[in-house]
Structure formats: C-alpha cells, structure tokens
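2 proteins. here.
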Amino acid sequence: MESVMPVKETRIPAQPFKDKGFCLSYHKHMVRARILEERLIKMMRSGDGYFWIGGPGEEAFSVALGLQTRKGEGPAYDYLHLHYRSNSVVLTMGAPMIDFVRQMKNTVNDPFSGGRNFVSHIGKRDWNIMPVTSTIETQYAVAPGTAMAQRRNRLNKKDFGVTVVVGGDAGTAEGDFASSLIWASRPDFELPMLLIVTNNKFGISTPAETQHGEKYIADRARAFGIPAQVVDGNNPEKVWSALETAFDTIRSTGKPYFLELMVSRLNGHSSSSGALRVNGELCCIETFEKKLLKSQWITEEELEAIRAEAYAEAQAAHEQVKNEVYPEGHTFQDHTFAGGVRGGIPGRDF
C-alpha cells in the first residue's frame, strides 16, 4: 500500500499572512519539506542512498514558489527550470514524499528518472518541470527556449505563462547566466521570464565575498534593464510578496523580472561536506514558528504534533521503498531518447 499522505490544496486569501488557516498550512508545508530532507540525509548515511544534496533552509522561498506557480502542461502554464535544492517546491505542488525517497534509493519506481539519477534531480512533464541537471547553471541557458514558446503562445492578450528559472549564487559566474540575461531582455523581444538566484553566500566552500565584485547579483540584472529585487529569503511574507509582484508583472507585460533571495544553507553544500547542521545559520521555520506562537495561532504541543506527523510520513515512505527493486542492468539505455525502440515506457515520464 502506498505510504502517501494526501495534501489538501492550500486556499490563498487576499491577505494571506493575516489569515490563520493559510499561515498554518504554509507552516505545515515547510515542516514536511524539512523532514523530507532530514530523512534523505539519514538514508545517505545508512547506505540507502549514495549522495545527498538539497535545500534545508530554503523552505520559506520554496513553499511560496510551489504555491504561486500555475501548474499544468504546455505554454499556457508556468515552466520550472529548477536546480538540485528544489525538492520542497515540487513537494508543495503536490508530489508525494515517497517520490523523492524512491529517487534517493534509486529504485525502479522513481517517477523522475526510473532510478537512473540521484536525489533532487526532478523532472515532471505534466507540470512543466524541466529535468534538473547536475551541471551548474545550465538551466539558465535552456530557460529562454520555453519563454520564447510562451511569448508566441499567449493564453490571451492579457496573460502570459511564465518561465521560472532558479539557481544559486556561485553558479552566476557561469556564462549561461549572462546568456539568460541577454536573451530575456532583448528590445522588442523581451521574454516572460522570472529569473531567481538563491544566495546562500557560499559556492561549495568558497565564500561569496571573495568572488563577487558587485554588491548584489541583482545589480547585474538591472544593467540589462530588468526590474530586480533583493529579498530576505528567510521571511515567508516578504518572499510571498516579492514573488506575487514578480508573477503579476510578468503575466501582464510579458517582460522579465529578477529576484535575489538571501537564504540559509543549514546542512552545508551536500554530503560531500558531511551534511552536518551549520552553526549560526538562521532557520526560517524556527523564526516563523515564533511568530505563530506569539500570535497564539498555534501551541508548542501542536507544533510537535505536526513534526511527528511529517516524520511518520517520511518513515513510512522509507520503510516501503526499502523493499523496492533497482532497475535491471539491461535497461541502462532506456529513456535515453524520446520515442524510438529504446525511447521509454509508455505512460511513464522520465
């Protein structure tokens, strides 16, 4: 039996962060995302996975993006060009927790890659989620393609589907990032793109201040005439507002927008650096919980119950996946090309 906890659609009121129900739902999404990452780290350490990389500390942003994205297939909907810290975006959109556990274990039931890729390498055609790659920042060079399709195929004269591309601060040193700024901002052919950089101030182990001559990465977008904001990525309300402004602007104008989100990196870069909790990093969940407690919208006992529920969901998913099989060796070329003799299994999106 599938260990899947049904996730209710989050109702979005006119003033979301003045609404108790919305805030509690938002908090639950954040907690589920964090518990998932903790489970994946535990799997890596126990031999149920080979490598971990993820986004603990980015939940305030990721949940907001997951809730505001127009989910569907084709250019009328939003395209997501994510990177390997984006599990919580897709989890918030409605993907079951077990999907990510299966990819960590590399079982044949991994819905993103059939057990052929490692964790956080998501791809989902029916939600316009382009396959995440291991190569740094290449998503920025690919994203203009879907934005061009959206420019040509507007749903109506007042509303654009948006291409969203997300990457980290260190990757902006790659030429793909500059190419994306150029293609997004060409006069009279601007693209409906939301370019996002999550800035955790480190590139693996290299401090950002030793690499960046500009004060903010957003300044580089402004040089191309792209409106840009620098946002506290640990504050759910500020992130929500910034994303809402960006989406509204792009949908109405068809022109690009840039967000630089200052976020935390709670467990280091990846399992290559141990995935241990980093001292001194601000936790967006803890700060949000303090606000909820102060407003008397939740109690300590209720917080514990939410964490316990998410933990039980992750535990059940792990127990189920332990008994699932790996892909057979003779299938190693399957899903390499779209269509054809070895083009994939009908009905499966890899």
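next one coming up
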Amino acid sequence: MAGDTLVAMALGSTLFFSVPSAEARDNVALYLLITLAPFGLIGPFLGGFFARFPGAYRGGLVVSSALRAVAAVALAIWLNTILLFPVAFILLVLSRFHGISRSSVVPIVLDDPSELVSGNAQLARIGVVGSAVVVPFGLLGVGFGHPSFTLILALLVYVWSALSAVGLPPLRVERDRSREARTARKRASAPRDVRLARFATAGVRFLNGFLLLLVAFEFRDENAPIADFSALLAAAGLGYLIAAFVTPILNRRLSEEPMVVTGLAIEAGAAFVAAQVFGLPAAAFLAAAAGFAWGTAKFGFDGLLQATVPEEGRGRAFTNAETFFQIAWVVGALIPVLPVIPVSLGLTIAGLLALAIQVVYISAVLVPVARHRRSRGGTEAAGEAQKPEKNVLDLM
C-alpha cells in the first residue's frame, strides 16, 4: 500500500500537476483508457492461474511485490516518455495481483468466519498507516521536482514487501481433482448474493472514480494549490481508516449486505450536501465520505465472498470481482474527464445514482425472500414469518 501510494504521487505530479489543465485532461484520459482496455483479458488469466494453483497466494504476494520493484525503476527511467503508460499499467495489474492474493489468503489463516470482516479491516488499517508514513517523503520528492526520488523510495518499499512475503509459511489448499467436484466448485464460485453484492460494491467504486475526477478537475481548473489536493487525499484516507475501525463493529449487528447499502447511503448524502455548498470543506467531507463508503462496502463484500466461496474458487472469484471494480472505477472516472461537467450538476447526479443503486440492490435481495414466503402456506408459513432471514432483518 505504501509503495502504491508513492507511485500514485509520482504519476500525479507528472500527468496532472506539471501540465496545463487541458493537457492534464488528455493525459488522464489516455492513462485511464490504457488501464481499461486490456483488463478484460487479464481478469480471466489471473482467475485461471489461481484456479490451477489454489495454494499460490504466498507466491502471488512475493512475485507481485518483486516485479513492482522492477517496474518502479523502469517508471523512474521513462517517467517523461510515452513508455510511462504501459509501465504504469503493469504496476496497476501487479497491484491487483497482490490484492487478490492477500484477500484470498485471509480465510485460510482465519478459522472463524465471523473474524473475516475484522481481519480485512485490520489489513486496511495497516495499509492506511503505511501509506501515511511514506506520504511526507513522497512529497519531498514531488515538491522539489524530482518524482524519480519518490519512485526509488517505492522500489525500496516493494523490496521490503517481497522479503516479508517470503517469510510467510507455505499455504496448502487441498484439491479434489474429481470432475464432479470441480464442476460444483465452478458453479458455486459466485453465488447470487455474492453477485448482487459485487454489483452494489462496483456501484460505490464507479461513484468514487466519478467523484474523484470531477472534484479534482474542478480544483485544477480553478488553479487550486497543491495543499488543497493534499487535504482531499488526506480526507479520503481518513474516511477509509474510520471505516476500517467502524466496519467490524457494524458486522457484529449487521450482515454484509446492509454494510454495502450503508456505504451507498453515506456517499449519496455527502454528494447532495457538497452540491449545495461546494468548496474545500465540502469537498473534503465528500472525500472522507467516499473513502468511508468504499471501505465499508469493500470489507462487507470481501467478508461475504470469503465466507461463501470454497477455497479453490476464491482466487477466481476475487479476480473477477477486482476486474469488475477496476472497470467500474475507470468508466466512472472517464465521464467527467473530457466533457466539462458543472460540479454541482455532477454531484447531484452522483447522489441520485447512489440512491438508484441502493433501490435496485435492496429490491434484488428481497425478491427471493418474498417468493420463498409466498410459496409456503398454512401454519408452517406463519411460523417461518416469525423468523425472518438475517439479511432482511438487518436491512429493515
């Protein structure tokens, strides 16, 4: 996480701050398109890799960190050339590879399914702290006009990450090689509740991409100082950190689905407020709400997937989900980049869209329960009505 933060700072200083606003829009649009185009191919590749080697999560952590160290050096060399874009894409893919490996290993080392959300939140807290520690050093490099220094620091962090991953114990996942078992796992790799939660979580990711670029270019067009952008990033990180502390508490009373809805509701409310009184304080509040919404939705989704998908199917399921989330983020970010959308209009649209996603998601969750109840009759149905399912009770 610390290394990815340093890379993002170096790229931001090159693509966004060091050029005029119009050129910055073109640079960002090109970067987003390059990262989006091949993702449809990479997702199935990583999914197939984890399906074939279900115990390779430790190797994934080692390889993704080591290769990012190499890519950071290449990016430092080619930072001001067109080769920046393919190297940045490689870094993005390796970051996703690392995230999928990390998420897949959590349910292997935690025996109690009730600890999954707390485990994910703890990893997120560590990641936020790691990012916060390196930000001042990254700002030194960017502030003095030497983003390559920031990338060299990222190199050292990635090497440290790879060495730490080497020290992990080997992970062994038992495989049932029968055709029937493989077919059953493939069908069960993404149950309906996981697919619905993935849709809603992707909605949060889409909105985050849209809001980030909408607000960033509003500030960029007004020639806001870098300190304002730093405040927005700090607010987003703070919101995500708060989610890492609050989500385990919510999980004691709520199931994962209502946690996803909570994230959408908070993001909708913050967008409506910021649309009315837009400025640095409102934008910082919006960034914090977006960070909190993403953390709450993502921790809930990860816990749901880890608890319901078999071990051999988790790598593929996480790969598909991460690919879906990345595409959602890029599509959302592309919308406000080239056409100049008034910030108040954009924020209002984002709030309405968040509400619409909530309605669709809640309706989809409730429909099978309603059908199940209608299919029962007599005393049994009356008895079951007194024991509502956990998801419905939580949503109400």
